[in-house]
Write a structure and sequence with these properties.
Elements lengths: L2 E4 L10 E2 L8 E11 L5 E11 L7 E3 L5 E7 L2 E2 L10 E4 L4 E10 L9 E5 L2 E5 L20 E9 L5 E4 L2 E8 L3 E7 L11 E4 L2 E8 L5 E8 L8 H18 L7 E7 L6 E2 L4 E5 L12 H16 L7 E3 L5 H19 L2 H21 L10 E2 L8 H18 L1 H15 L2 E3 L1 H10 L4 H4 L1 H4 L5 E9 L2 E9 L12 E8 L10 E5 L3 E7 L6 E4 L8 E3 L4 H10 L3 H22 L6 H11 L6 H8 L4 H5 L7 H28 L10 H17 L5 H13 L3 H12 L4 H14 L3 H12 L6 H9 L9 H12 L2 H4 L2 H15 L3 H8 L10 H16 L5 H11 L1
The chain binds phenylalanine and zinc ion.
């Protein structure tokens, strides 16, 4: 060992990481052996890293570290003097091409409120390392292109921590003096440090077995608190279904002897795909029909599958650097979506995916935080776990599949997995595999580098003997010089009597403009476009409302038909906002009434289609958002629909009763429609509807029904509202996930006094800002409430909460702060008020890097 140099102090100003600066690591870590002396206040981590110089150079070894207390350091067995205490990493100059570095560090789980690294949750200990949490456990080159074979030994008090879990397969276990015990774990698959995990706790398993396609036996276990074991059945069934599905649809088999899942109540995101040891936010594991809604149950299936699918798309093939995040996330969301389509109701699922993309990703792509699916620089990578990287990323995969066809896409995905197994790959590697099976990757790749939602202008023109579709693409965010994108758009033509005139056709728009000829179509036709939501684009210009009404009644593509009714409603809303006065909504009311008549055929579809566009979706169509004008127009449309369709809505409300335990698509669809119906019936907040909602709340055994009724009542001024909220809290107040719903439902209320209610809720003894689920329920529930959050007092309240949260958990704080970044789009007095709060945050001392990043981009 030659010298120990202190790394420079942690950067005070935010420093940018750039894709263009990527360099392979100077040193590799083929193996790491870790021994944890676990204790909640102070845990000791003994690390032994075998290092290998990567290539010929004389650069020192750089180890990342964050909030570590270094107690001992040895190089090749020789103890070293300790550098002065440092909050950041270590730089060591090494001779030779190999070295063994041994460190002992102390870390402090109970005071780790960031929930990154090793932390305490409900008396248990667990880790979260993605993206840069491993450096909060021990000194390590914490970057995903270093693949290490980890061997781990956990030691802890047996009474407090009877279960000890880590990645890979279990090895020796036994007793230690002083009431302690140990367990050893060995992961044979080299992995990046972000996939490291360890858990110690008082947990009980739900166990099962799975036999893979090649006949290998896997022991499955979901670990939870003893009283929660009965609520793990749905997650376990979902896991086994996902394992089989990945074999059958992607040829991917599980590779360890065990697969463990642990559920914790304190977690920054949804769940984490650590190799062989997934750690979940409990809300995506614990679910039964008595305490979970249909939506919750579906979310459990989706997230369990998502994390499992990462075993191949993320773990066996991992990411070279964090600019490749969508390589694993976009692809895995896409695989998760295919799986949920396979579970049931694919058409309605596709509608939900489109609705979510428009509600979350389109606004992101149009605002100050817009970024490409593959960003080229970042200040803080934690802020890039976004709808763009995840959901737009998934849409890109779906477009490739549509362009190539199913069979070629499967061959290409096999090729990708085979060529990159055991490697840290790039989005370019993925595109190369697709290109080898026919994708025009040189053009398609532009999708990864352009921010902004592309616009496609579509116009029909009549010529002798033919109808011609003129298409033109543009992207105002990316600018006129950005290269055109390869956009697959499915179209069909309809007659005015509602008959389809042509076969559906997949048009590939490759240049800025294109023309498509439909020979033999002579009568003026209606355009059914972007069928199946084939591309994540905005279509313009708006068609004539009368044409939309015909398509809303007759289009045979469920998404296009849904979209026709949604656009019809949006146009009516925008027109009445512009007129500043209520208009006749006869056309919309008739279309909604016609759609309701078909509820017996597909109730879930009808529920989606008749849902009045949300206030924020309306705002996204306006240059300047005036939240109260939007709300007034929307309420007026709701009243018009109620006045015009009351009998049909009551019929939908009273339709077939379902068994709470019946999770068939039809039963779920009937409940969904009933929930949409009760919300619609409450548009006038009259006594008949409020008492029906209250009865639905008190008498149904299904949480789906109960939550739908409670949500509708939450905006009411009837006495039943308070009664229902009190009953819910009395009955479910000790279930954290249901208490989250109780907070969220009130934060989302349309009532004029919602801000005051939220301020009171923030003082409730059950409101714990340290718990991410609780903080999100109240704060994100409120910021999503466009009409009530958007006022100077609402902004001030949220800014105060952001500052309080930032000192504890920057990841959650910066997520909440995003609500304050879209000030440019608000009407002037609100824009000024929002900006003032953003500036107030920016001026506060000791902000986290996460928050500085969001606030500085927000101020732009
Ligand atoms: N990788 C996780 C997923 O499956 C998300 C996550 C990111 C979880 C960061 C925790 C921390 O999507
Ligand atoms: Zn993921």
């Amino acid at each position: 060992m030659d010298a120990i140099t202190r790394s420079p102090a942690a950067p005070t100003g935010p420093d940018v990481t750039r894709l263009a600066d990527y360099r392979p690591p100077d040193w590799l870590v083929p193996t790491a052996t870790l021994r944890f002396e676990l204790a909640p206040e102070r845990t000791l981590v003994h690390a032994r890293l075998e290092l290998l110089r990567n290539g010929q150079h004389d650069r020192p070894l750089r180890l990342d570290g964050d909030s570590l207390e270094l107690l001992a350091l040895a190089i090749d067995g020789a103890p070293q003097p300790l550098p002065a205490p440092s909050g950041s990493g270590l730089t060591l100059a090494l001779r030779g091409d190999r070295a063994v570095i041994e460190t002992v560090t102390a870390i402090h789980p109970v005071t780790n409120t960031r929930l990154m690294g090793l932390y305490a949750s409900g008396g248990n200990l667990c880790t979260q390392c993605e993206p840069e949490g491993f450096r909060r456990i021990t000194f390590f080159p914490d970057r995903p292109d270093i693949l290490t074979r980890f061997r781990v030994r956990l030691e802890a008090d047996r009474a407090a921590f009877p279960v000890l879990l880590a990645n890979g397969n279990p090895g020796a276990a036994g007793e230690l003096p002083g009431g302690r015990h140990f367990a050893e774990w060995d992961d044979p698959f080299p992995k990046p440090s972000y996939l490291f995990a360890a858990v110690a706790g008082r947990l009980e398993p739900c166990r099962d077995r799975f036999t893979t396609m090649s006949g290998r036996h896997v022991d499955l276990a979901i670990w939870v608190a003893a009283e929660d074991v009965p609520r793990t059945a749905h997650a376990m069934e979902s896991l086994k279904a996902a394992m089989r599905w990945d074999e059958e649809h992607y040829g991917r088999e599980y590779d360890l002897d065990v697969f463990n899942i642990v559920a914790v109540h304190d977690f920054n995101f949804g769940a984490m795909e650590n190799k062989g040891l997934n750690i979940f936010n409990a809300r995506y594991i614990l679910a039964d029909p008595e305490t979970a809604t249909d939506f919750d149950l579906d979310a459990v299936s989706a997230v369990v599958a998502h994390e499992y699918f990462h075993n191949w798309s993320g773990n066996r093939v991992t990411c070279r650097d964090w600019f490749q995040l969508s390589l694993k996330e976009g692809f895995t969301v896409f695989r998760e979506q295919q799986f949920t389509h396979w579970l049931g109701s694919p058409a309605v699922r596709r509608i939900e995916e489109a609705r979510a993309l428009r509600a979350f990703q389109f606004p992101e792509d149009a605002g100050p935080l817009a970024h490409p699916v593959q960003p080229d620089h970042y200040l803080e990578i934690s802020n890039f776990y976004t709808a763009t990287v995840y959901n737009k990323g998934a849409e890109l995969i779906g477009m490739m599949r549509r362009l190539m066809g199913e069979a070629a896409f499967r061959r290409a995905s096999d090729r990708y997995f085979t060529a990159n197994d055991g490697k840290a790959a790039t989005i370019e590697d993925f595109l190369a595999a697709m290109a080898a099976e026919g994708l025009e990757a040189a053009r398609f790749r532009h999708w990864y580098h352009q921010a902004g939602t592309p616009r496609v202008e579509a116009r029909l023109r009549q010529e002798a003997g033919a109808t011609i579709l003129e298409l033109a693409q543009s992207n105002p965010v990316a600018g006129a010089s950005a290269p055109p994108l390869l956009i697959p758009i499915e179209v069909a033509l309809f007659g005015r009597d509602g008959t389809r005139l042509t076969e559906p056709r997949l048009v590939t728009l490759a240049e800025r403009m294109a023309e498509v000829h439909f020979e033999g179509v002579e009568a003026p036709a209606l355009l059914s476009i972007n069928r199946g939501f084939s591309a994540p684009v905005l279509i313009s210009p708006d068609p004539d409302p009368a044409d939309l009404a015909i398509l809303a009644a007759h289009d045979d593509d469920p998404f296009a038909r849904y979209d026709a009714l949604q656009r019809l409603m949006l146009l009516a809303l925008l027109a009445s906002i512009e007129a500043g006065a209520p208009r006749s909504h006869a056309e919309v009311v008739e279309a909604v009434g016609n759609t309701l008549k078909e509820r017996w055929r597909d109730p879930a579809f009808v529920a989606e289609a008749i849902l009045v566009p949300s206030e924020s979706l309306i705002g996204d169509r306006m240059d300047q958002v005036d939240p109260l004008a939007i709300r007034a127009a929307r309420e007026a449309l709701r009243v018009a629909i109620l006045d015009g369709c009351a009998p049909a809505l009551w019929d939908a409300f009273h339709a077939e009763e379902t068994e709470a335990r019946d999770l068939s698509p039809r039963a779920k669809g009937l409940r969904r429609l009933k929930g949409v119906a009760i919300a619609a019936l409450l548009a006038r907040d009259d006594a008949e509807a409020t008492s029906a909602a209250f009865r639905m709340f008190t008498s149904s055994r299904s949480m789906t029904d109960r939550m739908a009724a409670l949500t509708a009542l939450a905006s009411s001024s009837a006495a039943e509202r308070q009664e229902a909220l009190a009953l819910f809290r009395a009955r479910h107040g000790d279930d954290p996930m249901l208490l989250d719903k109780w907070f969220a439902v009130q934060a989302g209320s349309g009532r004029a006094d919602t801000l005051q209610a939220v301020e009171v809720l923030a003082q409730d003894p059950a409101f714990d800002i340290r718990n991410p689920n609780r903080a999100r329920a109240l704060l994100l529930g409120f910021t999503a409430n466009q009409a009530r959050f958007n006022c100077p007092e609402g902004y001030r309240f949220i800014a105060d909460q952001v500052l309080a949260l930032d000192a504890l958990n920057p990841s959650v704080a910066s997520r909440v702060a995003q609500a304050l970044t879209r000030w440019k789009r608000m009407i002037p007095p609100l824009a000024a008020a929002m900006r003032t709060e953003l500036e107030r945050i920016a001026a506060a001392p000791k902000l986290s890097r996460d928050l500085v990043d969001v606030v500085s981009r927000g101020l732009g």
